[in-house]
Amino acid sequence: MEKKGLKKELGIFTLVSLGIGGMIGSGIFILPAIMGAYAGPGLVLSIFICGIIIIFLGISYAELGSAFPITGGPYSLPRLALGDFGGFIMGWGYFLYLFIGTAGVIDIFVVYLSFYFPGLAHGATLTAHGVTVAVAVLWILTIINVFGVRWGGLYAVITTIGKLIPLLIFVLVGLTFFKASNFKPFIPFGFEGFTLSITLFFWSYTGFEAIVVPTEEVKNPSKTIPWSMILTLLITILVYVVIALVFVGMIEWDALNLVKNDWQGIEKLSSPLSTIPEKMNLPILATIVVIGAIIATAGCGGSWVLFQGRMPFAMAKDKLFWSPMASVNKKYGTPAASLIFTSILTTIILITIPNFPSVALIASVAVIVPYAAASISLVILRTTKKDVERPFKLPFAKTITLLGFIFSTYLIYWASWPWTLVGILLMLSGYPIFLLIRRHDLEIKRNLWIPVYLILVLIVSILGDMRFSLQNFTHFNPLHVLPMPYDLIILTFIAIGIYFWAYKINVKYDMKKQGGE
Q1: Could you tell me which of 259, 250, 258, 254 has the C-alpha nearest to residue 282?
Q2: Which residue range is the domain that position 174 belongs to?
Q3: 385 located within any domain
């Protein structure tokens, strides 16, 4: 008798829609204005370079997902290479990112909704009424996904199209008001501000890995996953860069009552893509953008709810999480218990931290280390599981994955003090949690590189350039012992050393284990 499991109902169009839906959400509607305060018109180049970095990270998932079609990609794929303990730590970081990030997306949905219903938010912080609406929206999205991945996928397709059309209209209308003079000077605040803006926009690119989360529900995953990953990344980068170009070129300084090149003034715009056309006497365009933002965050929220429910499900199947999370609803074929559990956690975040910037920074830092682990995992599995068929095989794998790991290390550092500290402490909190689940076969030596790596990056953050400090709520600033570019040189050597250490120790461990069998 065939064992009943997850239904394979996701094709390439739906999967790309889920990927784009999970990425193009809250960030693009707010972050360009904030980035302008650090990079000026150079924010366009920052968005492009951030996209290139994401390609180096995401392309690893294309090979891993096609070769190993198992649910829970950012956890389950590193687990194949790093063992249960290493896999759990990466899954823990990604799990933090998912349920915290979902709250951030829904926060912005309510912030834009307050354009029509004042009193739901003050700036980027929700009021009590706003929190109530946010929680209600979260549970509506949860119910949709409990009814079936097909409905969650269909919802993603509809909302993805619904948000791209307003953005397309913004671009087409904005091009008619384009002023090349707004791009001079291009990088007015130096390289430090430019790199800070890369980190700020990183939030908007997170979510690409969601394509390999529901892998067991994908039709023909060996071909669908690589193409979906590549298309999702390329489309998203193109959309972001074009919108940023039009945003900068469309600015009317006089209409905004700002002096030319007053980028700090642009930073104060809470809804920049709608405020600029509104001040230019284009109210219809402003309304279209607001509607697009609402649709975008609603669609993104639906995708995130779908994905976050798959993480505890995948970990529980491997006996590394609470066992009820591994159950599949017999009627709808979905991990209903896991969906409900993660939405309860997101509800707690919505109530306790109703501020978007705080939530976004915490979520972004938590996910970078799992991204880096995927790069290492690819080369480890090339050696330890060389007989597995790889429908998509990444060329120049060692070079590309090493660069991906180095870029990830930069991003952890560029997240800036004190968020580097917060993110690293959140990652390390997974260690005592794992000990509550298992106290044997800890594989400490195999995974010693993880805490060493995190602590070394933290030390560089403490000793590093004092200008890498954002929204510092502590009374301690970086010591400036390693100013630019010495900080990046040290981080590069750390990344290279950790990369090869992790590769060698895990290959040696796995080969020894196979020999014992």
Answers
A1: 250
A2: 12-368
A3: no
H or E element, residue 125: strand 125-126
pLDDT single digits (tens) 34-73: 889 889 999 999 999 999 999 998 888 888 877 887 765 6
Tell me how far apart the terminal alpha carbons of the chain are, to the nearest angstrom: 31
CA distance 430 to 427: 6
Q: Which residues neighbour 395 within 8 Å (Cβ) at sequence distance 6 or greater?
A: none
**What CATH code is carried by the domain that includes residue 199?**
1.20.1740.10
User: Is 184 strand, coil or helix?
Assistant: coil
Our count of domains for the chain comes to: 1
User: Residue written as tokens 């006497």?
Assistant: 281
pLDDT category of residue 135 using cuts at 50, 70 and 90: very high
Place of tokens 């501000």: 193
pLDDT tens digits, one per residue of 412-459: 998 888 888 988 998 999 999 888 877 777 788 899 999 999 999 999
* Residue 422 covered by a domain: no
Cα–Cα distance measured from residue 492 to residue 409, given in angstroms and rounded to the nearest whole number: 8
Q: Which residue has the tokens 């904030």?
A: 34
Q: How far is CA 233 from CA 85, 214, 222, 329, 433, in A?
A: 30, 18, 18, 32, 34
Tens digit of each residue's pLDDT (9 = 90 or more) over 356-411: 777 877 887 888 898 899 999 999 999 999 888 887 888 899 999 999 999 999 99
Torsion sign across C-alpha atoms 124, 26, 195, 59: positive
Task: Indicate if the pLDDT at residue 82 is higher than 50.
Answer: yes
Give φ, ψ of 417 to 5 degrees: -70, 135
- Cα angle 417-46-288, degrees, rounded to a multiple of 5: 105
Angle, nearest 10°, between helix axes 221-250 and 190-205? Answer: 130
